[in-house]
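Hey L., structure's done. Input below.
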Amino acid sequence: MIVSLKKEGFLVTVWVMPFLQEGSVACAEARRLGHLIEGGDPPSIAREISVGGAGERLGSTVKVLVDLVDFPPGHWDGGGGGWALQSGQLRWWGTQPVRAIDLTSDAAIAWFVSRLKALQARVGIDGFKVRIGLSPNPKTVFPSRLTLFFQLV
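Output:
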């Protein structure tokens, strides 16, 4: 698809977040290297659906309900824990739980950027839209100091 779009003259950008899906190879590698934010207790369901404005609360409620009914079927396979989050996990849209890359660590940022650049070289992506992300977990804090990340990307 990327090749076809580029032949038509489009520039292809990929939306990325500093989250890794629990069952992925990248998550296992990041964990082994110490590049993930380790959390305390995951937020309660009540906490997840009561944070933010009406739109955020509605979105969080939908994510919880999707996970409770396992839709699409099997989307938690390999993520562990069923619909309940484990320490350090965040709930994302219709996926296994995700874990956050530690953006306070220069080594973690360099690792993440190297993976993005490898993807860019392999697939021919023109750029990235980076969404730093927000989390209902109050212990997950993303630093305002992301200069290194943006310089490298």
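The helical segments are 2-7, 25-33, 45-50, 54-68, 106-123, 147-152. Confidence is low (pLDDT under 50) at residues 135-148.

-- N.
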